[in-house]
Structure formats: structure tokens, C-alpha cells
């Protein structure tokens, strides 16, 4: 082993990685030159509303399953055990509710984008607020999505960071802009297969390296990595059954119920029944994805025990563990590291392509088309240009993410809760509360976003150790020492804050979606009530 712990790619690994990009590009080109040749917006955005349920379900799963989950989940399980696995419980309600409430309604309305619902229910202004919030959410998220695998690859193999970002960004932008939603869905299918294969291969080899199944089991059990169900009701504990299984339902609803990227897939299916079926089939797919990434964390523990490469200072952050593990354990299996890197990038490609396509769709359908009349050919061309532009924005966002520094899984899920949560609240306000009006909706959304950033940023700042990492450092040890030093004043400082606020800041990030969506509904209802009864209130005040 290289004394610095640096690992190297072989030529076969590079070839496998290149094959992934070439195959994805080929699928994009295929859909650019077959069918309707992407000459209408119906085909580009909604695949001519002709999709079947199997590819859709894999694509639905792939959208929010990026390298973040592949890297972040094993790191979480390695460090804290299998408690995170209980997030699998929230998939039940988190998919049943979209399947039986959101999908039938959106499908029957034959929407052009999910935000059109907001105009039908409230008014144009609410639609635009919804669209802009969605764009904001997805632009940040895709930055995290593209940056994460590139950073891991760079840290472990020395592969050029921006080279990886640009190569994947370029390929993904091209196949999305050329092949439209059909290309996005079918590359998702192919990339999901690569993703599962890569993870499975590493797990099998890892178990073998750990001395077989029973040895591996004994090691993780004795290391205390098999967690029982934690029923602690305290909402500030990061991961318990309640935060994951119940808080997670709201997270799932914001992703699988009202997110344009997913609703676009439901709307593109041939029949309503297939749309509902595809949502049902996401359940087993998500469970497999979750199982593979949790098992990966356990296998890492079985191989390293408490003597992690982080501890040995071969790497500088938890998020580099998985790839380091792969390069370390699979040295003698030429091609396997390449397969795993292909797995990481597959996961992210399938996420950012969905982001490009859905962002181009909403920008066109919600922001541009209502104001300018244009021919179908022109609208399609403009949609493709928009997809290209979002590709460029994505690379720019990767640079912004580069300047920040936090655990990727928690960062991504926090974004979903902080921006997706208020959007979920807005839709719920419209769907479940006939008395809500437009003024209430806009004010509610604003209040939800303010609450989200107040609690989200407050929480981030009050957990000082994570922000310490942005300081320059020489080795892991100094970081640990620094964070220990700073933790003490941070705790004292936190204790001197009002107890109520302090409690709010330490809320588990898994509750963000629930908190922020409820805020929107509550404030939305209060304001609606006040403005409906405006006349009476004015009279009352005069009296
Ligand atoms: C969306 C969930 C929570 C569903 O398990 C999962 O796919 C996940 O943890 N995603 C993290 C974000 C990402 O992988 O980009
Ligand atoms: Na993905």
C-alpha cells in the first residue's frame, strides 16, 4: 500500500467508467433520432404520455437516489449503526398517500406541470411562487448531486475534481437536451442496474474479505452496530423510529407526492392505473436500495472495526470512507473499483438528468409559455436550450457546494425538508382546505420558508463542530482537536439561549419537512381566515 494511502485506478477501471458515459450518451442519441425525434414539447417533457410502469418505477427511485445516498448511508451506518435503516418504514405511507391522493388528482387534471394545479386552485401568483421555490430547491440539490461523486473520486484516487464534474455534467446535459424525458427515463433504468450491480459486487467481495458471512456478522454485532428500534419520543434525537418513520413520511410526500420531477413521470405514463402501479413498485426498489447501502456500511465495519481509515488519517471526511474502502479492498480485483465508481456516477447522473429535464419543463411551462406565444418547434428548441442552461448552472452550483462543507446525506435531506417541506405544505393547503385563499397561500409559503431557514441555519450554527471543518487544517487530528475545543464554548453559548429557541434549533433534521409544511398550512389558514373576514375585522376594529 502507498504510505499516504493514495489509491490508483487501473486502465480497466477507466474503461468501465468511460463505458458508462458512452452508453448513457448512446441512449440519449437513440431517443433523439427515433420516435418523434423530440420535435414536440409533449415528447420532450412527457414522453408522449406513453410510458409503462416498470421503467417509470426505476426512474422514480433513481431521481432522488444519488451518490449522496450511496456514500452517505454506509458512512452513517458505519459510524452509528443500523438505526437509519428504519427510514424504510416511512416508505409505506410515503408512497401510499401519493399513489391514492396526489396521483389520481394530478393525472385527471391532465396538468402540464404540477404548479399549474396551484393556479387552478389559487391564482397565477401562487403558481409562480411554487415554481420559483422548486427551481431553488433543485438547483441547490443538483449541485450537491454532481459534486459528491467527483469529490470522493478526487480524494481517494487523485482523479481531477473539476475534470470529473465537467465530464459528467457535459454528458448528462447532452443526453438530457437531445433525448428528452424518454432518454432520461431509459438512462435511469440502465444506471439503476449499474448502481445495484456495483453495490452488490462490493458487498460480496467485502464479506469475503471480512472472513465470510458468520465472521462478518459477529464483528458487527460485537461492535454494537446492529441497532434495536429506538422509540425515544424526543424530537431532537437525530435518528429514532419517530424521526425516521414518521418525520420521513413528510419528506417522502414532498419528494414523491408534489415534486415536479416525480409528478412529470406520473403524468407521462400511459394510464392512471400504470402511474399508480409505478408508485407502488417504487416501494420494493427503494427497500433494495436502502438495504444495499446499509449492508455496505455493515461490511465496512466488519472489515475495519473501529480502526477506520479516517482514524488512520488516510482520508479527511466520513464521506470518503466508502470509496476508500472499495479501492482498499478491491485492489486485487481489476475492474471492480471502476464498476463501483460507475455505480456512484450512475446514481448521480440519473439524479441530475431528472433535475435538468424537470427544471427545463417548469421554466418553459410555468414561466415562459404563459407570457410569450410561440410555435411548437420554437418552444421545443427553447426547452432544449433551457436544459443546456441548467447543465451549466449545475456545474456552477457544484462550485458553490465546493465552498461549503458538510456531511452530504444530511445536507441533501435538509434541503429536501427546508425547501421541499414548504412546497408540500402549499399543496396540502390547496388540496385539503377548501377555505384557504391565495393571500393565505402566499403568506403561508413565505412563513414556511422563513421557518425553514431560521431553524435550519440556526441548527447548523449551533452545531459548531460541523462548521469548524471549513477552517484550514493540516490533518484530521487538528480538526478533531479544534472541534473539541470549540464544542465547549458552543454548548455554553447554546445553554445561555432561551430554552425554547434552543430546543427548536436542535430539532432533528428529519422533522424539517413536517415542521415546515405544517407551518405553511397553519399560517395559510390563519391568514385566509383573517382576509376572508376582512370586512368583519375592520368593522370590529372600528367598533
Ligand atoms: C430519498 C430517500 C430518503 C429515500 O430513501 C433516499 O433516496 C435518500 O436518502 N436520498 C438522499 C439524497 C440523495 O441520494 O441524493
Ligand atoms: Na440518481
UniProtKB/TrEMBL annotation:
The gene is slc5a6b. Keywords: Biotin, Cell membrane, Glycoprotein, Ion transport, Membrane, Sodium, Sodium transport, Symport, Transmembrane, Transmembrane helix, Transport. It is a multi-pass membrane protein. Belongs to the sodium:solute symporter (SSF) (TC 2.A.21) family. It comes from the Eukaryota. PROSITE patterns: NA_SOLUT_SYMP_1, NA_SOLUT_SYMP_3. It is found in: Apical cell membrane. Sodium-dependent multivitamin transporter that mediates the electrogenic transport of pantothenate, biotin, lipoate and iodide. Functions as a Na(+)-coupled substrate symporter where the stoichiometry of Na(+):substrate is 2:1, creating an electrochemical Na(+) gradient used as driving force for substrate uptake. Required for biotin and pantothenate uptake in the intestine across the brush border membrane. Plays a role in the maintenance of intestinal mucosa integrity, by providing the gut mucosa with biotin. InterPro entries: Na/Glc_symporter_sf, Na/solute_symporter, Na/solute_symporter_CS, Sodium:Solute_Symporter_SSF. The keyword Transmembrane applies. It comes from Sinocyclocheilus anshuiensis. It catalyses: biotin(out) + 2 Na(+)(out) = biotin(in) + 2 Na(+)(in); iodide(out) + 2 Na(+)(out) = iodide(in) + 2 Na(+)(in); (R)-lipoate(out) + 2 Na(+)(out) = (R)-lipoate(in) + 2 Na(+)(in); (R)-pantothenate(out) + 2 Na(+)(out) = (R)-pantothenate(in) + 2 Na(+)(in). The chain crosses the membrane at residues 12-33, 53-72, 84-107, 128-147, 159-181, 193-211, 240-258, 279-302, 339-360, 381-402, 408-432, 439-461, 509-530. Interacts with PDZD11. The keyword Glycoprotein applies. This is Sodium-dependent multivitamin transporter. Pfam families: SSF (PF00474). One of its GO terms (cellular component) is apical plasma membrane. GO terms for biological process: inorganic ion transmembrane transport; pantothenate transmembrane transport; sodium ion transport. One of its GO terms (molecular function) is symporter activity.
